[in-house]
Amino acid sequence: MLVCDVLTLWEWYACLWCADPVGVVEEAPKLKHRFRHYYFNRSRTCFLCKQKVLSQGSACQVCRYICHRQCENQVSVYL
Ligand SMILES: [Zn+2]
Ligand SMILES: [Zn+2]
């Protein structure tokens, strides 16, 4: 029991030391889409539903993904 407590305490201190949350394995950072609303001066094609995007739409600042505003939340968070 005592050993267990010591280990837990040690893990906690180790965690503070490296500032990593306990149990979270660090992965390579994934790129996320960052959509902003735009007024397009010519019609574009929505990458998600393949319909035309007329004037108002969303475009990702990271990868230039273009879609309707209403399609935006159906696009997966990560690239
Ligand atoms: Zn993107
Ligand atoms: Zn769409």
Automatic annotation (TrEMBL):
Keywords, in A-Z order: Metal-binding, Signal, Zinc
Pfam families reported in the protein's UniProt record: C1_1
Protein name: Phorbol-ester/DAG-type domain-containing protein
Boundaries of every Phorbol-ester/DAG-type domain copy: 32-79
SUPFAM superfamilies registered for this protein in UniProt: Cysteine-rich domain (SSF57889)
Stretch forming the signal peptide: 1-18
UniProt key word Cytoplasm: no
